[in-house]
Design goal:
heterodimer, A: about 475 residues, mainly alpha, elongated, B: about 600 residues, about 20% strand
Amino acid sequence: MLKYIFKRILLFIPTLFIISLLTFFLSTNVPGDPVEQMLNSNSEMGSSAKAQAAEKAYIAKRKQLGLDLPTFYFTISNQATPKDLYAIPKKFHRENLTKLIDKYGNWNEINTYYNSLKELDVAIGNVESDSVNADAIITIKADIQQLFVESDDNAVQLALKDMQTQTKVAENLSVLSAQITKTENLYKEVVSKPTVSKKFIPAIHWYGFRNQYHQWITKFMKGDFGISYQDEKPVKTVIWEAIRWTVLLSIISIFLTYLIAIPLGIVSAANKGSMKDQTISTSLFILYSLPSFWVATLLIMFFGGGDFFNLFPSFGVPQSTENMSFFAKFTNYVWHLTLPIICYTYGGLAFISRQMRGAMVNSLSQDYVRTARAKGLDEEKVLWKHAIKNSLLPIITLFANVFPLAISGAVALELIFSIPGMGKTAYEALVARNYPVVYTIVMFSAILTLVGYLVADILYAVVDPRISYNKK
Amino acid sequence: MSIKNTLYTTLFIFLSIVVLSAFVSNTGNSSKVYKDELNIHVLSDATGLNPYTVSDATSRRYVIPNIMQSMLYYDLQTMELKPVLAKSLPEVKEVGDGLEITYEIRPEAVWDNGTPVTAKDVIFSYKAILCPKVNSDNIKSAVDYVKDIRTYPEDPKKYTVICNKNIGAVEGTGYEINILPEYVYDAKGLLKKYTITELTVENPKCADDENVKEFSDFFNSQQTMREAAFVQGSGAYKFVSWETGQRLILERKKNWWGDKINKENIFFEAYPKRLVYVTINSFTTALTALKNEKLDFIYVTPVKDYVDLDNSPKFKKNFYKVEPVQLAYQAIGLNHKDKILSDVKVRQALCYLTNVDQMVEKVIYNKGVRTNSTILPMKKNLINPAIKPYPFDIEKGKALLKEAGWKDSDGDGVLDKIIDGKKTDFEVTYNYNSGNSLREMVGLLMQRSFHQVGINLTIKSLEWSLYQDELKKHNCQMWYQGWVSSPGLDDNKQLFHTSAANGGSNYMSFGNAKTDKLLDEIREEFDVNKRKELYYQMQVMEHEQVPYIFLYVQKYRDCVHNRFENINAGPSAYPGVWFAGFRVKKGYKVEN
C-alpha cells in the first residue's frame, strides 16, 4: 500500500509539470496585454486628456514584469523564424513580422526591410513641418504606421507608392525619397526571394534558463507565488484572504449536502417505485435543474430585505468584531451565510441522493438483508443498521471529488453575494490578466484534484478489503 | 437507529439555528436612530490608497480625495477651480516660451503631526512622481512638462512651478497632484539628494542609485497602499480599516486644520463621522441592500434598474434620486482609413441615418442629453452656436450616398460601388465590448435605420481586451467609444492629432494639417477669446469631417438616503457628488 501511494505521488510530478505548461502557454497566448492593462486602468472609459502610456514606459514595465524574456527553455519552430523574435517589444510589429515570415520565409530580408522602415520612421520625424508639406508628412507617417502592421502585398505596394508621391509635394521631403526607394527595393527583395521551404524544416532554438517559465516555476516551488498585478499584494496574501471564505462555505455545504441527501436516498430506496420515491426524485431533479445564480438572485430579492421579507442580509460576509460574545458571533455567521449556503447546497442533493439510492437498492437485494429480515428484524433496523453500512461505500469515495471544488469556489455565487472568496478572486484576476494570481489558483486546484483522486483510491482500499493495489 | 437519529437531530439543530439567527440578528433594524456614517456603494473594491500608483476609479475618485488634497479642486457645479490647499488661485506668468505658476499654500494647512504643509512637501511629491522606478505611469503625464520648482527662503509656503507652455499646466500642477507629507513617505530623506531637473531628464543617472531604489521599493510597496501609518494626507478623513473585498472605512479627523477655514468652499465641509465604502459586485444585490437601508449612496450604472427603482415603495420612502450630467460623452468611432468610410460624404450620410434622439429615449431612458462635439453641453460659452446637430433624415442620407456614388446596381437591396476596380457592397461592422447591453442596443438601432437605405451593419461583440487590441491596430470600421473629459480646458490632441494615430487614441486615423495646427494652437493659447475662436473652428471640423458620430452625454444615476442634504450634485466630481459634504437633515436621529 505504501509503495503504491509513493508511486502515485511520484506520478504527480510529471502531471503537474504538464498542467503548469498548459496553464502557462494558454495564458501567454490569450489576447490582451498585461503590460497595457497595468499602465491603463481597466475602465470602459478612457480619459481623453491624458497621454497614453508612452512606448518607453511600456518597455520599462515589460522588463519589470519579466515579460521581455523568452517564454520557455526552447522553441520548436521552423528555420524561417528567427530565435530572437520575442525581443521586439511591440506586439503588433511582432505579429506582423510573423505574418511576413509565414508568407515569405526569408527572415534576413524581412529584417532589413523592417529596419529600413524604422529608419524611415525616424527620418520623417526629423523633417521640419511647414504649411506646404504638413499634409504630406501626415500621410507619410500614417503610411509608415500602416506598413508596420501590414502584410498584404497589394496594400504594402500601395502605401509605398503613396509615400513616394507625397515626397514630391515639397522640396524638403525629397531627402526621404532615397530612403523610401531603399525600403521599396528591400520589400521587393522580400517578395522576390522567398524561401518558403525553410518554413517546413523544423528548428529548435535553445534559450537557456533565462526564460519566463523557468523564473515562474522555480519561484513557485520555493513558495514564492509572485506579486499580484492588480494591487501589488503578494499572491500568497491574496489567496489566503480569499480561501478562508470559500473553504468555510464549501465545508458547511458539503456537510449539509450529505446530511440531507443520504436520508432522502435511503427513504427513496426503501420505498422504491412508490409515490414517495417519485416525489423525492422529481423534486430533487427540479432543484438540480435550477441555475444557482438565478436562485441566488431570487433569494436575495425576496429574503434580503428588499421589497419583500427582511430576514437575511443581502450581501457579504460577517464583519469581524472583537467585543461580540461567542453566541452573537456564531449567529452572525449563520445569519450571513444561510442564503449562500442554500445555493451552494441544493444543486448537489440530486447527485448524492441518487448515488445513495442506487447503492441502497443494491444492498437491499443482497442475501444478508434477506437474512436480517428473515430473522425477524423490523424494517427500520434492516435499513439503518445493516443495509446502510455497505451502501455508504460509493458515497465516501465521492467525497474525494469535491476537494478541488472546495477551493476553486463558485464564481457566480460569490459575485452575487459579494463574498470575497476564491471564485471572485479568480474571476477578477482572469479579467485583468493578472497572471500570477491565475497561475497560482490553477496550480492549486490541480494539486488538490490530484490529491483528491489519490485519497479516493486509498479510501476504496480502506473501506473495501477486496480492493488491493499491491501486485500479487 | 443511531445513524438515523444522528442525521435527523443534526438537521433539526441546523434549521433551528438558522431560524434563530434570522431573528436574533435582525432585531434593532426597525429603530430609526442612524449611525453617524455614510455607506457608499462601490462596484469593485479599491486597489490601494497611494495616489500616484493606483489607477482604478474607486481608489482615485471615491476614496483618495477625502484623505489627500490638491492645491485646487474643481467646483462641482460651476466647474471653476477653487483653492483648497492653496490660499488662492495661482498666479500664472508667461516667461519666454514657458510658464511660471506661483502657488501659496494656506497658512493654516498642517499635517496630522502638527507640522505645516510647505513647499518642501510639494517638491517631494513631484520627485516621488518623477522618480524613475516608482510605478506612477498613470500620473507622470500630468507633470511631464514641468521643468523645475523655485522656492522662496523667506516664505516656506510659496513656490513657483516652471514649465512648458500648455493650457493644461494649471490643471496638471494644481488639481491632478495630491500633495503628500514628506515626513511620512520619505522619512529618511532618500530623494533629497536629487533636484527635480535631474529627475526630469531622459534616462536619469540616478536610476541605479541605492537611495532611489530603496525609496521606490518602499513607495511601490503594500505599506503605502494599505497601512494606515503610511496612508496620510491633509484631508478631513483618515484611513482606519479595510477588509479586502468588503468594506473600507475612513474616519473624520477630530482636529482637522480645514475647520479653521470656515467653509470657504464645499471642500472645507466634512460632516459624516465615517465614510464606509461597501463593495458589492452585483447590482441586484446592491439594490436590495439599498432598499434595506444598508447603503446610503449608490450610483446605478444599469439604466433600466435605475428607472425601475421608482416601483419600489421601500425605495421611495427612504431615498431620492439625483441626476447630475456626466463630464463624459459617448460616440460612434469611424475609421477614416477604411475604403468605404474614407469618403466624407459617406460619413456625413451615416450621421443623418443615426437616430440619436431615439437612442436617448430608448437606450438611456432620457437620462442624458445629446452632444454635437467634444465640447460638452455644460460648457455653454465654448459651444459654437453655428453648429446644429445632424437631424435624423433618411432622405438626406440617401442623397449623400448617391452623390458619393453608392447605388443598388444589382437590385439585391444592398448598396454597391466600384472601389479600386472591384464591386463592393456597403457592408460595415460595428464593434462593442461584450456584456455591455447598452452598447449593443445602440448597434441594433443603427442597424435598423441603416437597413432602410441598403446598408448592412454587422454587430460584433468582443471581449474587452480583444476589443481594445482591435482598436489599437486600427482594425475596426465602426465602434462604440466613451470618453471622460476634463472639467477644465479641453485638449483633444490625444484624440484627434495625427500623431495620436500611432500609440495615442486617434483610432479613427482622423486629421490633416489644418486640424493638427488647430489642436496645437489650442494647447498654447492663453487668451480666452482667441481660444474660444479656436474651439469654434475645431467644432466645425469635428462636425464636417465626422471623426465620430456624436451621441449623448449621460447623467449620473445617483440615489441618496433621505436623511442627507448638501450633496452638491454636479458634473465635475465622479460620481457627481461630494461625499464629505453630506449633512444629516434636521429631524433625523443620529447616534453619537
